[in-house]
Amino acid sequence: MNAACLGGFKVSVVNHNSQFVQHEYGQQVHILNDQCLNQFLIKLGQPHTEQPQLNFYVESIYETLLQTAINLFFPKKFQKYETRMIDAHSEAIVEGDFLDSDTRVVTVNLARAGALPSQVCYERLNYLFKPKNIRQDHVFVARKTNNNGQVTGVDYSGSKIGGDIENKIVLFPDPMGATGGTICQAADLYKKEVKGAAQKIIALHLIVTPEYIKRIKNECPEIIVLAARIDRGLSSARALAAMPGAYPEEEKGLNAQQYIVPGAGGVGELLNNSYC
Q1: Which DSSP helix (H) or strand (E) runs through 177?
Q2: Residue ranges in the chain whose pLDDT is less than 50
Q3: Which of 17, 83, 143, 216 has the most CB atoms at less than 10 Å from its CB?
Protein backbone atom coordinates (compact mmCIF):
# COMPACT_ATOMS: atom_id res chain seq x y z
CA MET A 1 0.00 0.00 0.00
CA ASN A 2 1.12 3.55 -0.72
CA ALA A 3 -0.48 6.95 -0.48
CA ALA A 4 -1.71 9.38 -3.09
CA CYS A 5 -2.38 13.07 -2.60
CA LEU A 6 -5.89 14.44 -3.11
CA GLY A 7 -6.69 18.06 -2.36
CA GLY A 8 -3.58 18.35 -0.21
CA PHE A 9 -4.53 15.35 1.95
CA LYS A 10 -3.41 11.76 1.69
CA VAL A 11 -5.86 9.02 0.82
CA SER A 12 -5.19 5.31 0.66
CA VAL A 13 -4.48 3.54 -2.62
CA VAL A 14 -4.25 -0.24 -2.81
CA ASN A 15 -3.34 -2.98 -5.25
CA HIS A 16 -5.16 -2.23 -8.52
CA ASN A 17 -5.91 -5.94 -8.92
CA SER A 18 -8.27 -5.85 -5.96
CA GLN A 19 -11.94 -4.91 -6.41
CA PHE A 20 -12.10 -3.53 -2.89
CA VAL A 21 -9.87 -1.47 -0.63
CA GLN A 22 -8.30 -3.63 2.05
CA HIS A 23 -9.13 -2.36 5.53
CA GLU A 24 -9.71 -3.33 9.15
CA TYR A 25 -13.23 -1.94 9.60
CA GLY A 26 -14.89 -5.35 9.54
CA GLN A 27 -16.94 -7.41 7.11
CA GLN A 28 -19.87 -5.01 7.24
CA VAL A 29 -17.93 -2.36 5.28
CA HIS A 30 -17.09 -2.54 1.56
CA ILE A 31 -15.06 0.22 -0.12
CA LEU A 32 -14.61 -0.05 -3.86
CA ASN A 33 -11.22 0.22 -5.52
CA ASP A 34 -12.51 1.38 -8.91
CA GLN A 35 -10.40 3.78 -10.95
CA CYS A 36 -13.35 5.05 -13.00
CA LEU A 37 -15.30 5.87 -9.85
CA ASN A 38 -12.24 7.49 -8.28
CA GLN A 39 -11.84 9.71 -11.34
CA PHE A 40 -15.52 10.67 -11.31
CA LEU A 41 -15.21 11.54 -7.61
CA ILE A 42 -12.15 13.69 -8.28
CA LYS A 43 -14.01 15.57 -11.01
CA LEU A 44 -17.13 15.84 -8.86
CA GLY A 45 -15.19 17.40 -5.99
CA GLN A 46 -13.22 20.01 -7.96
CA PRO A 47 -14.12 23.66 -7.23
CA HIS A 48 -15.18 24.46 -10.81
CA THR A 49 -17.58 21.49 -11.21
CA GLU A 50 -21.23 22.52 -11.41
CA GLN A 51 -24.50 21.46 -12.99
CA PRO A 52 -25.18 19.60 -15.24
CA GLN A 53 -21.83 17.78 -14.94
CA LEU A 54 -22.38 17.18 -11.24
CA ASN A 55 -25.54 15.17 -11.84
CA PHE A 56 -23.82 13.13 -14.52
CA TYR A 57 -20.99 12.13 -12.17
CA VAL A 58 -23.38 11.24 -9.34
CA GLU A 59 -25.62 9.20 -11.65
CA SER A 60 -22.64 7.35 -13.13
CA ILE A 61 -21.19 6.47 -9.73
CA TYR A 62 -24.54 5.28 -8.39
CA GLU A 63 -25.09 3.03 -11.37
CA THR A 64 -21.85 1.23 -10.44
CA LEU A 65 -22.63 1.19 -6.71
CA LEU A 66 -26.05 -0.32 -7.39
CA GLN A 67 -24.63 -2.88 -9.80
CA THR A 68 -22.00 -3.90 -7.24
CA ALA A 69 -24.61 -4.21 -4.48
CA ILE A 70 -26.79 -6.37 -6.71
CA ASN A 71 -23.90 -8.64 -7.66
CA LEU A 72 -22.80 -9.07 -4.05
CA PHE A 73 -25.97 -9.11 -1.99
CA PHE A 74 -29.08 -9.81 -4.08
CA PRO A 75 -30.53 -13.35 -4.25
CA LYS A 76 -30.06 -15.62 -7.28
CA LYS A 77 -31.84 -18.76 -8.35
CA PHE A 78 -31.54 -21.34 -11.12
CA GLN A 79 -33.62 -20.30 -14.12
CA LYS A 80 -34.10 -21.04 -17.82
CA TYR A 81 -34.78 -18.46 -20.52
CA GLU A 82 -35.66 -18.97 -24.16
CA THR A 83 -34.00 -16.74 -26.75
CA ARG A 84 -35.34 -15.64 -30.13
CA MET A 85 -33.45 -18.55 -31.71
CA ILE A 86 -35.90 -21.01 -30.13
CA ASP A 87 -37.98 -21.36 -33.32
CA ALA A 88 -34.96 -22.69 -35.19
CA HIS A 89 -33.14 -24.52 -32.37
CA SER A 90 -34.67 -26.24 -29.36
CA GLU A 91 -31.28 -25.78 -27.68
CA ALA A 92 -31.67 -21.99 -27.74
CA ILE A 93 -32.12 -21.82 -23.97
CA VAL A 94 -29.94 -19.92 -21.53
CA GLU A 95 -29.87 -21.51 -18.09
CA GLY A 96 -28.01 -20.95 -14.87
CA ASP A 97 -28.06 -18.96 -11.64
CA PHE A 98 -29.56 -15.56 -12.42
CA LEU A 99 -31.01 -12.74 -10.35
CA ASP A 100 -34.25 -13.73 -8.70
CA SER A 101 -36.82 -11.68 -10.62
CA ASP A 102 -39.18 -11.84 -7.63
CA THR A 103 -36.78 -9.87 -5.43
CA ARG A 104 -38.54 -7.02 -3.63
CA VAL A 105 -36.64 -3.80 -3.08
CA VAL A 106 -37.28 -0.47 -1.37
CA THR A 107 -35.01 2.44 -2.19
CA VAL A 108 -35.25 5.34 0.26
CA ASN A 109 -34.90 8.94 -0.88
CA LEU A 110 -33.23 10.68 2.05
CA ALA A 111 -34.23 14.13 0.86
CA ARG A 112 -32.59 16.20 -0.28
CA ALA A 113 -29.10 14.93 -1.09
CA GLY A 114 -30.42 11.42 -1.62
CA ALA A 115 -33.14 12.36 -4.13
CA LEU A 116 -31.09 11.85 -7.30
CA PRO A 117 -29.21 8.72 -6.09
CA SER A 118 -32.46 7.07 -5.02
CA GLN A 119 -34.16 7.93 -8.30
CA VAL A 120 -31.25 6.37 -10.23
CA CYS A 121 -31.57 3.18 -8.18
CA TYR A 122 -35.35 3.14 -8.52
CA GLU A 123 -35.28 3.45 -12.31
CA ARG A 124 -32.54 0.84 -12.83
CA LEU A 125 -34.19 -1.65 -10.48
CA ASN A 126 -37.43 -1.45 -12.44
CA TYR A 127 -35.59 -2.74 -15.53
CA LEU A 128 -33.97 -5.64 -13.65
CA PHE A 129 -36.87 -6.89 -11.53
CA LYS A 130 -40.65 -6.93 -11.63
CA PRO A 131 -41.69 -3.27 -11.38
CA LYS A 132 -44.55 -4.13 -9.01
CA ASN A 133 -41.89 -5.29 -6.50
CA ILE A 134 -39.86 -2.06 -6.59
CA ARG A 135 -40.79 0.87 -4.35
CA GLN A 136 -39.37 4.28 -3.57
CA ASP A 137 -39.95 5.83 -0.14
CA HIS A 138 -39.24 9.41 0.89
CA VAL A 139 -37.80 10.46 4.25
CA PHE A 140 -37.14 14.11 5.00
CA VAL A 141 -34.05 14.47 7.16
CA ALA A 142 -31.35 17.12 7.42
CA ARG A 143 -28.42 18.10 9.60
CA LYS A 144 -29.25 20.18 12.65
CA THR A 145 -26.51 22.73 13.35
CA ASN A 146 -25.72 25.37 15.97
CA ASN A 147 -24.62 28.98 15.41
CA ASN A 148 -21.05 27.83 14.79
CA GLY A 149 -22.11 25.50 11.99
CA GLN A 150 -21.41 22.40 14.08
CA VAL A 151 -23.74 19.44 13.68
CA THR A 152 -25.81 18.86 16.81
CA GLY A 153 -28.18 16.20 15.52
CA VAL A 154 -30.65 15.30 12.81
CA ASP A 155 -33.82 17.20 11.97
CA TYR A 156 -36.56 14.76 10.93
CA SER A 157 -39.59 16.46 9.41
CA GLY A 158 -41.66 13.63 7.97
CA SER A 159 -41.85 10.76 5.52
CA LYS A 160 -43.84 9.11 2.74
CA ILE A 161 -43.48 5.34 3.18
CA GLY A 162 -45.44 3.12 0.83
CA GLY A 163 -45.75 -0.12 2.77
CA ASP A 164 -43.94 -2.75 4.81
CA ILE A 165 -40.37 -4.01 4.41
CA GLU A 166 -41.00 -7.69 5.17
CA ASN A 167 -38.35 -9.78 3.37
CA LYS A 168 -37.44 -6.78 1.21
CA ILE A 169 -34.00 -5.36 0.51
CA VAL A 170 -33.85 -1.76 1.71
CA LEU A 171 -31.41 0.66 0.08
CA PHE A 172 -30.26 3.96 1.57
CA PRO A 173 -28.49 5.78 -1.31
CA ASP A 174 -27.02 8.82 0.47
CA PRO A 175 -24.01 10.57 -1.13
CA MET A 176 -22.01 11.51 1.97
CA GLY A 177 -21.51 9.16 4.91
CA ALA A 178 -20.15 11.84 7.23
CA THR A 179 -21.35 11.48 10.83
CA GLY A 180 -23.78 8.59 10.36
CA GLY A 181 -26.61 10.52 11.98
CA THR A 182 -28.90 10.54 8.96
CA ILE A 183 -28.57 6.82 8.22
CA CYS A 184 -29.03 5.82 11.86
CA GLN A 185 -32.11 8.07 12.17
CA ALA A 186 -33.60 6.56 8.99
CA ALA A 187 -32.82 3.01 10.06
CA ASP A 188 -34.41 3.67 13.45
CA LEU A 189 -37.54 4.99 11.73
CA TYR A 190 -37.90 1.79 9.69
CA LYS A 191 -37.25 -0.42 12.72
CA LYS A 192 -39.81 1.30 14.93
CA GLU A 193 -42.54 2.51 12.58
CA VAL A 194 -42.51 0.27 9.49
CA LYS A 195 -43.91 -3.26 9.62
CA GLY A 196 -41.80 -6.29 8.81
CA ALA A 197 -38.18 -7.35 8.94
CA ALA A 198 -35.97 -6.42 6.01
CA GLN A 199 -34.01 -9.14 4.23
CA LYS A 200 -31.02 -6.76 4.03
CA ILE A 201 -30.33 -3.07 4.59
CA ILE A 202 -27.63 -1.58 2.38
CA ALA A 203 -26.27 1.97 2.54
CA LEU A 204 -24.75 3.25 -0.72
CA HIS A 205 -22.36 6.20 -0.49
CA LEU A 206 -19.99 8.22 -2.64
CA ILE A 207 -17.69 8.88 0.32
CA VAL A 208 -17.57 7.71 3.93
CA THR A 209 -15.43 8.68 6.92
CA PRO A 210 -13.95 6.68 9.82
CA GLU A 211 -16.36 8.52 12.12
CA TYR A 212 -19.32 7.34 10.04
CA ILE A 213 -18.12 3.74 10.03
CA LYS A 214 -17.61 3.75 13.81
CA ARG A 215 -21.14 5.03 14.43
CA ILE A 216 -22.78 2.61 12.02
CA LYS A 217 -20.93 -0.34 13.56
CA ASN A 218 -21.97 0.72 17.06
CA GLU A 219 -25.58 1.76 16.44
CA CYS A 220 -26.66 -0.05 13.25
CA PRO A 221 -24.55 -3.22 12.90
CA GLU A 222 -27.19 -4.75 10.62
CA ILE A 223 -26.47 -2.21 7.86
CA ILE A 224 -24.15 -3.20 5.03
CA VAL A 225 -22.02 -0.24 3.93
CA LEU A 226 -20.88 0.08 0.30
CA ALA A 227 -18.90 3.17 -0.68
CA ALA A 228 -16.87 4.43 -3.61
CA ARG A 229 -14.23 6.01 -1.36
CA ILE A 230 -13.19 6.54 2.25
CA ASP A 231 -11.80 9.95 3.23
CA ARG A 232 -9.66 10.30 6.34
CA GLY A 233 -7.52 13.26 5.37
CA LEU A 234 -7.24 14.71 8.89
CA SER A 235 -5.77 11.50 10.32
CA SER A 236 -2.30 11.16 11.78
CA ALA A 237 0.62 10.47 9.45
CA ARG A 238 0.94 6.99 10.94
CA ALA A 239 -2.72 6.18 10.26
CA LEU A 240 -2.53 7.50 6.69
CA ALA A 241 0.50 5.35 5.96
CA ALA A 242 -1.21 2.22 7.31
CA MET A 243 -4.14 0.11 6.19
CA PRO A 244 -7.43 1.94 6.81
CA GLY A 245 -8.77 1.03 10.22
CA ALA A 246 -5.41 -0.06 11.62
CA TYR A 247 -5.25 2.93 14.01
CA PRO A 248 -8.91 3.86 14.52
CA GLU A 249 -8.26 6.37 17.30
CA GLU A 250 -5.91 8.30 15.01
CA GLU A 251 -8.27 8.39 12.03
CA LYS A 252 -10.29 11.48 11.26
CA GLY A 253 -12.23 12.58 8.22
CA LEU A 254 -14.43 15.38 9.60
CA ASN A 255 -13.57 19.00 10.30
CA ALA A 256 -15.10 21.11 13.10
CA GLN A 257 -18.31 21.59 11.09
CA GLN A 258 -18.49 17.86 10.36
CA TYR A 259 -17.73 18.25 6.67
CA ILE A 260 -15.61 15.58 5.00
CA VAL A 261 -11.93 16.19 4.21
CA PRO A 262 -10.91 15.89 1.41
CA GLY A 263 -14.61 15.36 0.62
CA ALA A 264 -16.53 17.03 -2.18
CA GLY A 265 -17.97 20.08 -0.41
CA GLY A 266 -21.70 20.39 0.20
CA VAL A 267 -22.94 17.86 -2.35
CA GLY A 268 -26.56 18.22 -1.22
CA GLU A 269 -26.46 21.97 -1.82
CA LEU A 270 -24.67 21.59 -5.15
CA LEU A 271 -27.08 18.95 -6.46
CA ASN A 272 -29.96 21.35 -5.84
CA ASN A 273 -28.22 24.66 -6.70
CA SER A 274 -29.38 25.79 -3.27
CA TYR A 275 -27.76 29.23 -3.22
CA CYS A 276 -28.19 30.39 -6.81
Answers
A1: strand 176-177
A2: 1-14
A3: 216
